Amino acid sequence: MDLISLIIILLILSGLTVIYFKKRQSRQLEYIKRYIFHSSIKKKISNKYPHLTNEETHLVFRALRDYFWMCNKAKRRMVAMPSQVVDDAWHEFILFTRNYEIFCSKAIGRFLHHTPTEAMRTPTLANDGIKRAWRLACAKENIHPSVPFKLPLIFEIDSKLKIEKGFIYSLDCTDKKTGTTSDGYCAGHIGCSSGCSGDSGVSSDSGMSNDSGGFFDGFFDSSGADCGGGCGGD
User: Fold this and answer.
1) What is the largest CA-CA distance in the chain?
2) Cα(208)–Cα(216) distance, integer angstroms
3) CA separation (Å) from 178 to 173, 175, 181, 182?
4) In 32-45, which positions are buried (b, 16+ CB within 10 angstroms) versus exposed (e)?
C-alpha cells in the first residue's frame, strides 16, 4: 500500500469517526430534550417550594434539561450549576439512583457526578466553571455571551421564581443614579471580567450555534474550579 492510499484510508476513517460521534451526540441531546422526569421528583420540588405553580415547577425541570444539555456540550469539562432551585431538582433526581444512572448513560455517556460549592467568588468575579456555564447557556438560547440582551433561563430562574437564598444575576449591574453595583451577581462580569477571551479560552468574535460543540472546545479543563449550587463533571 502506497503512502497516498494510506492517507486516503485514514481520512475516510477520520470522517466516519466524526460522523459517528456527531450522530451519537445528536441522539443524546434529543433524549435530554424528550426526557420525562418522574412525577415524584416534581412533587418533592413542589413540596419544598410550595409557592411555585405547576407551570413554574415545569420551568424548573426545563432548566434542568438545559443544564444536562450544557454538560453534554462541555464533554468532560466542569460546568457550574448557577441556580439553587435547579440544583435542588438535580439532587432529587440523583436520589432515584437507577433512573439517574440510566439517564446519564443515555444522555451524556457517563455518570455525571455532583460537587456542591459556591456560585461566584464575589458579585463581580467569576470562576472558570461559571464562565463555562454562562457561555453554554447563552449558546443554548442564541444569546451572545459578551453582549447579552437577556439572561439565559438557568441564570434567571431563581430570581424569576423568587427562590429564597437563590442565586440572583443581573444584566445591568450598576445603578445609573448612584453608580453603585446592584445586589446579586453581575452577569456582565461572568463573560468579561478578565476580558472576553483570554480568561475563558474563547474568542469574543466566535460564532454561536445550538448545534455547535466546537464553540466551546477552547475552554480550559477546570476540574478544580468553583461552581454554583453544584458542579457537573468528572
Assistant:
1) 75
2) 9
3) 12, 6, 9, 10
4) beeeebeeebbebb
Reported as half-sphere exposure (CB side, CA atoms, 13 A), residue 109 has a value of 14
Distance in angstroms (rounded) separating the CA atoms of residues 215 and 209: 8
Q: For cell 447557556, what's the residue? A: 137
pTM: 0.74
With cell 420540588, the residue in question is 45
Torsion sign (Cα): 150, 155, 160, 166: negative
DSSP secondary-structure letter at 220? P
Q: Quick check: 209 pLDDT over 50?
A: no
Judged on CB neighbours under 10 Å (0-12, 13-18, 19+), 111 is: exposed
Q: What are 21-33's pLDDT values in tens digits?
A: 677 778 999 999 9
Q: Where are the domains of the chain?
A: 38-233
